[in-house]
Specification:
It is globular and about 55 Å long. The protein has helices spanning 13-25, 39-48, 66-80, 100-122, 160-175, 189-214, 244-256, and strands spanning 4-7, 31-36, 55-60, 83-88, 126-135, 217-221, 267-269, 272-274. α2 links the parallel β2 and β3 (55-60). The protein has 7 helices and 8 strands. By secondary structure, it is α/β, with parallel strands linked by helices. The protein has a single domain, classed as NAD(P)-binding Rossmann-like Domain (Rossmann fold, 3-Layer(aba) Sandwich). It has an 8-stranded mixed beta sheet, sandwiched between helices. The protein is 42% helix and 16% strand.
Length: 277
């Protein structure tokens, strides 16, 4: 059976490197879907991939459009019966000069609601032994938030719907100027990343009993600092930053190599677990 890979947010940077890496390392009978929300960039991205062995297909996908995500998942179910590797990588960009109240709505729509939408749509399609990986960061550890906020992320008890409600309430607090008094960090990237890792943990808690014996992996991945247009404005020293191709290497190993059961439901960076608490 052909293996089916899907990468969201694959038009540039890490997402492109992940799609290109899958296309190079999977077999000739396999298929990789490189998805981008902008129709004009899909073909351009596909044409830039080099050294592909697997069949590469471009697809327009905006993860903020829940119905479109569900429709694409259903299309893959009908066409292939399931999927084997999914990288949820789509992310909205932050700019230092723009107030958080202006950035937070599209940020949550893409990074958080987009992530949970992908998990809901593609989780049921994941074949035994598959990989469902959410690109997050080291800021996704619950330890990055004040202790008073930890109870809002009880990932052993909450559902993805519950988590969406938490993230929407935080979004509204940022827009309305209440976030600081509620204890949220000023930099909206931190709560958003915590929400992404929480989504992985919620789904993993629901599926662990079935996934563990099947060798299926659901995890969040931290690729480390990457030299991109999105990251440069935030860091004074980029001397240690990786190229997107280098940063894709460790996540690709998680996707393609035998599963390490310790990583199930965790945030993983360079082969080690970043503790949740």
């Amino acid at each position: 059976m052909s293996r089916i890979g899907v990468v969201s947010g694959a038009g540039q940077g890490l997402g492109f490197a992940l799609a290109e890496g899958l296309a190079r390392q999977l077999a000739t009978e396999d298929i990789v879907y490189l998805t981008v929300r902008d129709a004009g960039r899909v073909r351009e991205a596909v044409d830039r991939v080099s050294g592909s062995r697997a069949e590469l297909r471009g697809h327009v996908l905006d993860v903020t459009e829940g119905a479109a995500v569900e429709a694409f998942a259903e299309e893959l179910r009908s066409r292939h019966g399931g999927v084997d590797i999914v990288f949820s990588n789509a992310a909205a960009r932050l700019t230092p000069e723009t107030p958080a109240a202006e950035l937070v709505r599209p940020f949550v729509a893409t990074n958080n609601l987009g992530t949970t939408g992908v998990l809901r749509a593609f989780g049921p399609l994941l074949r035994p032994g598959g990989r469902l990986l959410v690109v997050a960061s080291s800021f996704g550890s619950l330890r990055r938030l004040p202790a008073a906020l930890h109870e809002s992320f009880d990932t052993d008890a909450m559902t993805l719907d519950d988590l969406d409600a938490v993230m929407l309430a935080w979004r509204d607090a940022v827009i309305e100027g209440r976030a600081a008094e509620e204890g949220w960090p000023d930099w909206i990237n931190v709560p958003s990343k915590v929400g992404q890792v929480a989504a992985v943990r919620v789904l993993a808690h629901e599926r662990r009993a079935d996934d563990t014996p099947a060798g299926t992996l659901i995890a969040a991945v931290c690729p480390g600092l990457i030299d991109t247009d999105a990251s440069r404005p935030w860091f004074d020293d980029m001397s240690g930053a990786q190229s997107p191709t280098a940063a894709a290497a460790a996540p690709l190993r998680l996707a393609l190599e035998p599963v390490d059961r310790r990583f199930y439901g965790e945030l993983v960076q360079f082969g080690r677990i970043i503790p949740w608490r």
